[in-house]
Amino acid sequence: MYSLIVWKIDRISPNLKDFIEMYEGLKKYNITFVSKNEQFYTSTTMGEAMLKIILVFAELEGKLAAERALSIMLSRAEKKVMVMAQLYH
Asked: Are 10 and 57 contacting, i.e. CB atoms less than 8 angstroms apart?
């Protein structure tokens, strides 16, 4: 039996739809999904539900971060503030 082991569930996929497709593929080939940090079993109905809930919040977190970044960039553009970053080689 094979397992896919990840460090954190919320970092494996940027959105729920992609994760569900991958997860269904794993189930098709009897590959278990294990997270190092989360302590529940995805082989149970409750565990699978918890997995999906965590992923919904991870997707939300990513979208909110993108909205905040865009808002900051637009605000700086309106104020004609140029942000410079030093490049390291």
From this structure: yes
Residue 50: both structure tokens together: 């918890």
Burial bucket for residue 61 (CB in 10 Å: 0-12, 13-18, 19+): exposed
| Cβ pair 36, 8 in contact under 8 A | yes
Which tens digit of pLDDT belongs to each residue from 47-66? 888 888 888 888 898 899 99
DSSP SS3 for 42: coil
- pTM above 0.70? no
Give me the phi and psi of 45, to 5 degrees please: -60, -45
Q: How many CB atoms lie within 10 A of CB 58?
A: 20
CA distance 31 to 35: 13
The 3-state DSSP class for residue 37 equals: coil
